[in-house]
Amino acid sequence: MDRLALILVIIGALNWGLIGLFQFDLVATLFGGQASLLSRIVYTLVGVAGAYSISLLFRERTVTKE
């Protein structure tokens, strides 16, 4: 679950970077505009992944030795 959330957060961050630098929304371009159902699903999943990632800040880290 952590990796999936991380992947979605990275997708969202890259999309926001494109919007900020070039005014280009890749998600909207790929899925038919900001108001399309598929775009809204992607935006929602990225938002949920971001909220889930907040829990990573408060988890106890364990050190593993190889």
From TrEMBL:
The keyword Membrane applies. Keywords: Membrane, Transmembrane, Transmembrane helix. PANTHER family: MEMBRANE PROTEIN (PTHR37304:SF1), MEMBRANE PROTEIN-RELATED (PTHR37304). InterPro entries: DUF378. Pfam families: DUF378. The chain crosses the membrane at residues 7-31, 37-58. This is DUF378 domain-containing protein.
